[in-house]
């Protein structure tokens, strides 16, 4: 039998770890009140709970395939705090992703969420890259019904490698996961990162950097 104090400490420690990112709410819910200009601290201010109704916890339309006719051949349909105000403070969200044949979700990271993805339709090549010094690519080809996890913060990608259209559903561990698409962040920031920085960083000729900058 473990000492009860030790058990308590272990429990308390695991609580600290578990709440390091998105803390457990101290009320049943805190439906986001998007009409106020109040200061936001880790979420949005709460609507008076007496004024809430089922629609604050509801979204419709995730059965509809997104329009994939973009340059990357994919469409992300998020269901996060912006779509469901009742997700405020709860630390979860969903996203449907549709892919044209060969379509990609380009390498990106979610600064505030781990992601668990399942393939609804088609075949996807997915992967993520670990931190330096390994910078190891961990990747797999997924079939319908397969599930894959992208750990928080790590750059990851998906590509439709099947013959027809593909679709996936992701759950994320944040009401507001955030997304940083690597190429857009590096070559498409506003204002742009100085050409010399990018030229040295990527070991590219400045003309190539300029061309990449115009594309993002
Ligand atoms: C999809 O988007 C493209 C470009 O934005 C548009 O031309 C096309 O009509 C859209 N298709 C559908 C089915 O909405």
Number of strands: 10
The main pleated sheet reads as:
5 strands, antiparallel
CATH superfamily placement of the largest domain: Jelly Rolls
Proportion of residues in β-strands: 25-35%
Order of strands across the main sheet = 1-2-9-4-7
The CATH topology of the largest domain: Jelly Rolls
Assign the CATH class of the largest domain. Mainly Beta
Which ions and ligands are bound to the chains?
A: 2-acetamido-2-deoxy-beta-D-glucopyranose
Secondary structure tally, helices: 4
CATH architecture of the largest domain: Sandwich
Question: Any idea what the radius of gyration is?
Answer: 21 Å
Main structural class: alpha+beta
One letter per element, helices H and strands E, the order comes to: HEEEEEEEEEEHHH
Into how many domains do the coordinates divide? 2
Distance between the termini: 60 Å
**Molecular shape:** globular
Helix content: 10-25%
What number is the mean pLDDT? 90
Unreliable stretches: 5-9, 13-19
Function: May play a role in plant defense. Probably has no oxalate oxidase activity even if the active site is conserved.
Pfam families: Cupin_1 (PF00190)
Binding site for oxalate: 110, 115
Protein name: Germin-like protein
Task: Note down, in words, how this protein is organized.
This protein has helices spanning 4-18, 182-187, 195-202, 206-215, and strands spanning 74-79, 93-99, 104-109, 115-121, 124-129, 137-142, 147-150, 156-160, 166-172, 180-181. By secondary structure, the protein is α+β, with helices and mostly antiparallel strands. Strand 5 and strand 6 (137-142) form a beta hairpin. The protein binds 2-acetamido-2-deoxy-beta-D-glucopyranose. 2-acetamido-2-deoxy-beta-D-glucopyranose binds at residues 67, 69. The site of 2-acetamido-2-deoxy-beta-D-glucopyranose has 2 residues, from loops. Residues 60-210 form the Cupin type-1 domain. It is found in: Secreted, Extracellular space, Apoplast. Belongs to the germin family.
